[in-house]
Design a protein that fits this description.
By secondary structure, the protein is an all-alpha fold. The protein has one domain. It contains 14 helices and no strands. The two termini are 26 Å apart. It is found in: Cell membrane.
Length: 369
């Protein structure tokens, strides 16, 4: 009553053994594909981790540099500015990781929060009553009177250009892992598992436990079994090309490291612009929001403090920058070598111990030849 290993000669197999063999080939096929995938998956996961670590290091560096700008040059508002600064860098981090947000909304939200502080602590330091309504009015007015000039828009443009490729790369790497995991668990058809049993285990039914499949026979069976997986070849090649394009974009002129570490300078220029245009801004705000309470004898003194580059640990930045660049190069070189991964998967599975290579006798599915 054998269904797969039918043979004219006497056999030591039963129907139950055939079922066990089918379970075995399914398990072995999954394990052998997992083994092939392991190095590729390890490289992608490793790069995701390295990319995120280096990026977080750069973000922390840029955030510390921005915080120290307020502490050294704009001390009257440093404490209150800490929260908007933190929010800005959290939003940037979430954007890179694929959250439904934009660089523009993060930057403009930051400047909306910054304007009430600049207005009440630097332009009109005599203001004593900064009610919620008045603060909200200042936030909304910021969008109309544009107190920070072109600096806020420039910051949006620069960051959007440089962070876009990082966001896309982060999403592309996650997609790569998803594809590999899916191919590992692609279901075997009944025809495929029968063909694998015939190739690997039917010789055992005749006591031929040491004989192995012929190379050509193995390739035919594996190509048939993996037809759906090997169809990914064209898309996988395109995927590798996209990864290469994104890593080149990141290393090009819109360098993410330079853009992030330049945030403090953009903010400084924006604040200086607002201070220089203080009288005009005050006149417009008074018309729109009304006049707030002020202390006797306006404290408005020359609050413009020329700021030098905020002192920070530049060594950390240089190391993170170099580390990110080196890892990009290593990673993309490895991925380029894996272009034919799905096209050659049958050949790789038929390599090694599965087939007879150095012997004149092998199993062709029916007999020893």
């Amino acid at each position: 009553d054998l269904q797969i290993c039918q043979h004219r000669a006497p056999t030591c197999c039963t129907r139950k053994m055939e079922e066990s063999y089918q379970a075995a080939v399914r398990r072995e096929r999954t394990q052998s594909i997992q083994a092939l995938n392991f190095e590729l998956k390890y490289m992608i996961v490793g790069h995701i981790t390295a990319f995120q670590e280096a990026f977080e290091s750069l973000l922390r560096f840029a955030e510390n540099r921005t915080s120290s700008l307020f502490e050294t040059a704009y001390r009257p508002m440093a404490k209150e500015a800490a929260e908007p600064v933190k929010e800005l860098f959290t939003d940037i981090s979430l954007y890179i990781l694929g959250a439904e947000t934009t660089v523009e909304s993060a930057v403009l939200r930051f400047f909306d929060s910054l304007f009430p502080l600049v207005y009440s602590r630097l332009i009109n330091p005599g203001i004593t009553d900064l009610s919620e309504d008045y603060t909200e009015c200042l936030r909304l007015t910021r969008q109309d009177i544009n107190p920070f000039g072109h600096y806020s828009k420039n910051m949006v443009t620069e960051l959007s250009k440089s962070l876009w490729a990082s966001r896309m790369l982060s999403q592309a790497l996650s997609l790569g892992i998803e594809v590999i995991n899916t191919t590992e668990h692609a279901a075997l058809t009944k025809e495929c598992s029968k063909a694998l049993v015939k190739m690997q285990y039917c010789p055992h039914c005749q006591g031929l436990t040491l004989i192995r499949p012929c190379v050509g026979y193995c390739l035919n069976v594996m190509r048939g079994c993996l037809a759906s997986v090997s169809e990914l070849d064209a898309q996988w090649r395109e995927y590798i090309s996209t990864l290469e394009y994104l890593t080149n974009e990141m290393a090009a002129s819109h360098d993410v490291e330079i853009a992030l570490t330049g945030i403090w300078n953009s903010i400084n220029e924006a604040i200086l612009h607002a201070q220089l245009n203080g009288p005009q801004l005050s006149a417009t705000v008074d018309k729109v929001c009304g006049q707030p309470k002020q202390q006797e004898g306006n404290l408005s003194s020359d609050n413009i403090v020329p700021v030098k580059e905020a002192t920070a640990d530049t060594q950390t930045f240089v190391m993170a920058h170099a580390s990110l660049n080196n890892r990009r190069r290593e990673f993309i070189n490895y991925m380029k070598r894996s272009r034919t991964f799905y096209a050659s998967i049958a050949e790789r599975l038929c390599d090694g111990d599965l087939v007879m290579r150095d012997s004149s006798t092998c199993w062709n599915g029916e007999d020893v030849v």
